[in-house]
């Protein structure tokens, strides 16, 4: 598979073209042209970003105020980008659905942010962070993007500290670090268990500073419902003011989507209630490619589900695995005993047993599957909960494993543990009613973060000119799995450092022709939005948007969750198509469009999730290999680990919208070959 | 559990609203308070009545979007956010009164939803450190003694929910303000703008119509993040110094 031509870096490409032999999804999609990133840099990998920044065109400061930028989303990626572009002098409009930009879901990230500072002199470097990230992503991330991310990581910490982000410190006043899953160095910067909150407040404050300076105009409680495309270029968005119901047009020279992830397609996830796919999905329906949608990260350390009433799941940072030991009873008959009544010899510390070199700090996909297998074997702990048995019936199973801090409390003292993790343990106690200082915590995997998203080039532009996508909403940096503490890194890297440097190359082509509000393309987009809103209100059926969302979530978790099979995915697609038909005929939304109407908002998001779910299943069906967060039962090593097929699937699956004939999507598959010049693809091992 | 809910209903744009009573059954003690309201809303929609509008987002106690006066207390009987309040804090047969945040600076949008944009405007008026992207020095160049870093962190945990204002008999936002002043004032990075910051943030606070602080302390006891009352002392101290220095 090695190519005979050398890359400019002087290294051989390890993969040049993938030839897909299996075709499980035949009949569900059509094959399109391969996609090539027009902004892909060449040369020695370490110089690519520096060269790009130099060769990208500049915009004279006096001309910047004549250029208009729209940003959708105010999390780490969107908030940081809006602050930076405003500071640079562009006219920025920023939109969020919450009542304040400070509430974006980046705020809930707990554990930390990676940076190759090598403050510990433990062998870290930009190259090692790059290597760990590509390996952690199971060789399905784009090499150039990841290298850039590792390079910028160093600047992120400087920027955030200067903003007043109160990171954890050593007694001497210098910054402290800890470790995260999938790595053997200590490079994660943190602010107790509230790192995302502190980083987001830094970005939010920088953003509000620009609002005060008049460079950024912010629109809260606004939802983007359509993108305006004129002559093939993104030129604006249509929004709904969630308070008045007003449908408004906002035109600009460039549109940036920073609208986050779509894990709520599973109904229960660790995402905020309002997190949705609508901005990205509306763009997809207008022609933007959706890449690798099936790559979903299942986070190993969440509080287990307790009942059918639950609206969301809560994550416990995996940093707890630095000090907590994960175990289940060796004997199934011990599962209903109190944990302190189970002798040391009768406990199975399964991660330490199976993966001795990484132990409890194996990456998330591996830890998650291991926990699932323990429970499948009947060695789970906690209350028995009802679940489908896969044969159309029900069964009672225990879905939980212990995360035990007892040894760490004995070794370090309760105070030290409290200082490191306090809010996490408080949160656990509050939700479960159990004291984690006294009884081992119970955890189970839950849907957390999506690695898929809109396809973008190295410049973060989608395949639609003038439409950019950053942060979790794009697909590019995490491959098939995401290492802990790398999402915050990507959001801030994209927002503060990458986008401002790539978007100016596009903006330098301006000034652009002004688009009036009565341009036919604008009017058409507006009309589409108005008709959709009216349609939701007119169906007057019997089922709520909420109940459709729950039904979708059950289908997705059962068939497109931790383990996927060809048969299961085909079943799921059929069920989703049926659900879509019943949505359009039986939806019930009360109230009016011209007011705050939370059910109406929900209906719009749920139908987009239903359509996305169908595409996720088709993508998962097509990819007959296991990698990272995508585990196909048909493709595993004899030890039950994920088995990739680089000869067939070393590509990004970029799906084009192919229409929705009779309630069935036929998406168009465009493949982008993943070419590694600096790193050799290997079977991942953490043993 | 079976409960009786007394909920403030106010149509959008209406000058006034009223308490309406709803019985609810089938509430589990493992439910969060908001999940109990989700259940009520599903029942209401099936019965053809418009659901109760309320704000929530992360539902893990950190975004600050949820609100609600529950039996007259901000976020209810426990010191936490409403999303982290669980029904095990109530008893079968209880009657629970649910109202929106109490403050004229937080006008009611609809039912239990209020407008807290005044907080954003206070931050716009100096609640930041002026640093341009790309001009930051090496992070370890300015060490921060650990006790200062910890106090800074403890006050930076404010989630901007507005419970302090809703709980204050005088409708003051001094705890919110003091938390930000202390967070930035404890760090070397926050020093250059320290005194301009406090005067302009206080000016905006007063301009919005928030009341003055009279040291009652309801704010700190209602704060889900347990921001200590001494941040208000810090706020007043910084303000006095700023005035003395002529800012």
UniProtKB/TrEMBL annotation, chain A:
<keyword id="KW-0560">Oxidoreductase</keyword>
<keyword id="KW-0274">FAD</keyword>
<dbReference type="Pfam" id="PF00890">
    <property type="entry name" value="FAD_binding_2"/>
</dbReference>
<feature type="domain" description="FAD-dependent oxidoreductase 2 FAD-binding">
    <location>
        <begin position="69"/>
        <end position="488"/>
    </location>
</feature>
<comment type="similarity">
    <text>Belongs to the FAD-dependent oxidoreductase 2 family. FRD/SDH subfamily.</text>
</comment>
<dbReference type="InterPro" id="IPR037099">
    <property type="entry name" value="Fum_R/Succ_DH_flav-like_C_sf"/>
</dbReference>
<keyword id="KW-1003">Cell membrane</keyword>
<dbReference type="GO" id="GO:0005886">
    <property type="term" value="C:plasma membrane"/>
</dbReference>
<dbReference type="InterPro" id="IPR015939">
    <property type="entry name" value="Fum_Rdtase/Succ_DH_flav-like_C"/>
</dbReference>
<protein>
    <recommendedName>
        <fullName>succinate dehydrogenase</fullName>
        <ecNumber>1.3.5.1</ecNumber>
    </recommendedName>
</protein>
<dbReference type="InterPro" id="IPR011280">
    <property type="entry name" value="Succ_DH/Fum_Rdt_flav_su"/>
</dbReference>
<dbReference type="GO" id="GO:0009061">
    <property type="term" value="P:anaerobic respiration"/>
</dbReference>
<dbReference type="InterPro" id="IPR030664">
    <property type="entry name" value="SdhA/FrdA/AprA"/>
</dbReference>
<dbReference type="InterPro" id="IPR003953">
    <property type="entry name" value="FAD-dep_OxRdtase_2_FAD-bd"/>
</dbReference>
<keyword id="KW-0813">Transport</keyword>
<keyword id="KW-0249">Electron transport</keyword>
<feature type="active site" description="Proton acceptor">
    <location>
        <position position="364"/>
    </location>
</feature>
<dbReference type="InterPro" id="IPR027477">
    <property type="entry name" value="Succ_DH/fumarate_Rdtase_cat_sf"/>
</dbReference>
<dbReference type="GO" id="GO:0050660">
    <property type="term" value="F:flavin adenine dinucleotide binding"/>
</dbReference>
<dbReference type="Pfam" id="PF02910">
    <property type="entry name" value="Succ_DH_flav_C"/>
</dbReference>
<feature type="domain" description="Fumarate reductase/succinate dehydrogenase flavoprotein-like C-terminal">
    <location>
        <begin position="549"/>
        <end position="686"/>
    </location>
</feature>
<dbReference type="GO" id="GO:0008177">
    <property type="term" value="F:succinate dehydrogenase (quinone) activity"/>
</dbReference>
Automatic annotation (TrEMBL), chain B:
<dbReference type="Pfam" id="PF12838">
    <property type="entry name" value="Fer4_7"/>
</dbReference>
<comment type="similarity">
    <text>Belongs to the succinate dehydrogenase/fumarate reductase iron-sulfur protein family.</text>
</comment>
<dbReference type="InterPro" id="IPR004489">
    <property type="entry name" value="Succ_DH/fum_Rdtase_Fe-S"/>
</dbReference>
<dbReference type="InterPro" id="IPR036010">
    <property type="entry name" value="2Fe-2S_ferredoxin-like_sf"/>
</dbReference>
<dbReference type="InterPro" id="IPR017900">
    <property type="entry name" value="4Fe4S_Fe_S_CS"/>
</dbReference>
<dbReference type="InterPro" id="IPR012675">
    <property type="entry name" value="Beta-grasp_dom_sf"/>
</dbReference>
<dbReference type="InterPro" id="IPR025192">
    <property type="entry name" value="Succ_DH/fum_Rdtase_N"/>
</dbReference>
<keyword id="KW-0003">3Fe-4S</keyword>
<dbReference type="GO" id="GO:0051537">
    <property type="term" value="F:2 iron, 2 sulfur cluster binding"/>
</dbReference>
<keyword id="KW-0816">Tricarboxylic acid cycle</keyword>
<keyword id="KW-0001">2Fe-2S</keyword>
<keyword id="KW-0411">Iron-sulfur</keyword>
<dbReference type="GO" id="GO:0051539">
    <property type="term" value="F:4 iron, 4 sulfur cluster binding"/>
</dbReference>
<keyword id="KW-0408">Iron</keyword>
<keyword id="KW-0560">Oxidoreductase</keyword>
<dbReference type="GO" id="GO:0022904">
    <property type="term" value="P:respiratory electron transport chain"/>
</dbReference>
<dbReference type="InterPro" id="IPR017896">
    <property type="entry name" value="4Fe4S_Fe-S-bd"/>
</dbReference>
<dbReference type="InterPro" id="IPR009051">
    <property type="entry name" value="Helical_ferredxn"/>
</dbReference>
<dbReference type="InterPro" id="IPR006058">
    <property type="entry name" value="2Fe2S_fd_BS"/>
</dbReference>
<dbReference type="GO" id="GO:0009055">
    <property type="term" value="F:electron transfer activity"/>
</dbReference>
<dbReference type="GO" id="GO:0051538">
    <property type="term" value="F:3 iron, 4 sulfur cluster binding"/>
</dbReference>
<keyword id="KW-0479">Metal-binding</keyword>
């Amino acid at each position: 598979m090695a190519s005979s031509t050398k890359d400019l870096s002087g290294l051989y490409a390890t993969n040049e073209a993938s030839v897909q032999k299996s075709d499980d999804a035949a009949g569900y999609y059509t094959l399109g042209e391969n996609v090539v990133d027009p902004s892909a840099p060449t040369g020695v990998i370490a110089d690519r970003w520096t060269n790009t920044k130099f060769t990208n065109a500049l915009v004279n400061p006096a001309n910047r105020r004549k250029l208009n930028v729209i940003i959708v989303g105010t999390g780490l990626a969107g908030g940081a980008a809006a602050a930076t572009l405003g500071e640079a002098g562009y006219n920025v409009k920023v939109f969020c659905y919450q009542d304040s930009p400070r509430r974006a879901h980046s705020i809930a990230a707990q554990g930390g942010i990676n940076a190759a500072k090598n403050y510990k002199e433990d062998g870290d470097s930009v190259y090692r962070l790059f290597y760990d990230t590509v390996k952690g992503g199971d060789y399905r991330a784009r090499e150039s993007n990841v290298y850039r991310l590792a390079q910028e990581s160093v600047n992120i910490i400087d920027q955030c500290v200067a903003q007043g982000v109160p990171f954890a410190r050593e007694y001497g006043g210098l910054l402290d670090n800890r470790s995260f899953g999938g790595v053997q160095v200590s490079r994660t910067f943190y602010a107790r268990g509230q790192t995302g909150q502190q980083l987001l407040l830094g970005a939010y404050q920088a953003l509000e500073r620009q609002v005060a300076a008049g460079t950024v105009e912010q629109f809260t409680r606004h939802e983007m419902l359509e993108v305006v495309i004129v002559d093939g270029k993104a030129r604006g968005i249509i929004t709904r003011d969630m308070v008045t119901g007003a449908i408004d047009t906002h035109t600009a020279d460039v549109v940036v989507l920073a609208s986050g992830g779509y894990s709520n397609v599973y109904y229960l996830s660790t995402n905020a209630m309002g997190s949705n796919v609508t901005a990205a999905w509306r763009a997809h329906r207008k022609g933007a490619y959706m890449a690798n949608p099936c790559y979903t990260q299942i986070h190993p350390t969440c509080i287990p589900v307790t009942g059918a009433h639950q609206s969301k799941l809560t994550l416990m940072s995996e940093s707890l695995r630095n000090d907590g030991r994960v175990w289940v009873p060796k004997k199934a008959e011990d599962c209903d005993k109190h944990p302190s009544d189970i002798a040391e010899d009768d406990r199975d510390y399964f991660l330490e047993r199976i993966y001795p070199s990484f132990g409890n700090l194996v990456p998330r996909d591996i830890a998650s599957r291991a926990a699932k297998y323990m429970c499948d074997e009947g060695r789970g702990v906690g209350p028995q909960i009802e679940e489908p048995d896969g044969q159309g019936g029900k069964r009672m199973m225990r879905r939980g494993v212990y995360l035990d801090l007892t040894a760490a409390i004995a070794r370090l003292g309760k105070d030290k543990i409290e200082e490191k993790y306090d809010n996490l343990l408080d949160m656990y106690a509050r939700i479960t009613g159990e004291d984690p200082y006294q009884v081992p915590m119970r955890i189970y995997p839950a849907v957390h973060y999506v690695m898929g998203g809109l396809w973008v080039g190295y410049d973060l532009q989608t395949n639609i000119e003038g439409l950019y996508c950053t942060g979790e909403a794009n697909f590019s940096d995490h491959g098939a799995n995401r290492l802990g503490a790398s999402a915050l890194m990507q959001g801030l890297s994209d927002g503060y450092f990458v986008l401002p440097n790539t978007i100016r190359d596009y903006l330098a082509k301006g000034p652009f022709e002004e688009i009036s509000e009565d341009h036919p393309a604008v009017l058409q987009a507006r009309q589409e939005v108005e008709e959709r809103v009216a349609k939701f209100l007119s169906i007057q059926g019997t089922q709520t948007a909420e109940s459709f969302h729950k039904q979708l979530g059950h289908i997705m978790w059962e068939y497109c969750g931790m383990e996927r099979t060809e048969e299961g995915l085909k079943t799921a697609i059929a069920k989703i198509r049926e659900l879509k038909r019943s949505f359009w005929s039986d939806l019930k939304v009360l109230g009016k469009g011209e007011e705050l109407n939370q059910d109406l908002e929900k209906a719009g998001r749920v139908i987009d999730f239903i359509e996305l779910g169908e595409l996720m299943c088709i993508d998962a069906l097509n990819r007959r290999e296991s990698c990272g967060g995508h585990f196909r039962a048909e493709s595993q090593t004899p030890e039950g680990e994920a088995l990739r097929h680089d000869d067939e699937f070393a590509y990004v699956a970029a799906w084009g919208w192919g229409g929705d004939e009779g309630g069935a999507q036929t998406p168009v598959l465009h493949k982008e070959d993943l070419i590694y010049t600096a790193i050799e693809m290997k079977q991942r091992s953490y043993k | 559990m079976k409960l009786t809910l007394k909920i403030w209903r106010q149509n959008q744009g209406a000058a006034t609203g009223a308490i309406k009573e709803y019985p609810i059954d089938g509430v589990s003690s493992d439910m969060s308070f908001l999940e109990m309201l989700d259940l009520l809303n599903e029942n209401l929609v099936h019965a053809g009545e418009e659901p109760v509008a309320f704000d929530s987002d992360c539902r893990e106690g950190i975004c600050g979007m949820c609100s609600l006066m529950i039996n007259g207390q901000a976020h209810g009987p426990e010191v936490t956010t409403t999303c982290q309040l669980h029904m095990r804090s109530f008893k079968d047969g209880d009657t629970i009164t649910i109202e929106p945040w109490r403050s004229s600076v937080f006008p009611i949008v609809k039912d239990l939803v209020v407008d807290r944009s005044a907080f954003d405007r206070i931050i716009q008026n100096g609640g930041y450190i002026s640093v341009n992207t790309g001009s930051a020095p090496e992070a370890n160049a300015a060490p921060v003694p650990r006790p200062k870093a910890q106090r800074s962190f403890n006050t930076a945990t404010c989630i901007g929910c507005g419970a302090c204002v809703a709980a204050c008999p005088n409708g003051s936002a001094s705890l919110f303000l003091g938390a930000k002043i202390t967070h930035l004032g404890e760090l070397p990075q926050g020093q250059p703008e320290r005194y301009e910051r406090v005067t302009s943030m206080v000016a905006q606070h007063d301009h919005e119509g928030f009341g003055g602080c009279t040291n009652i302390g309801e704010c700190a006891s209602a704060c889900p993040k347990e921001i200590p009352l001494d941040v208000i002392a810090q706020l007043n101290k910084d303000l006095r110094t700023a005035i003395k220095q002529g800012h």
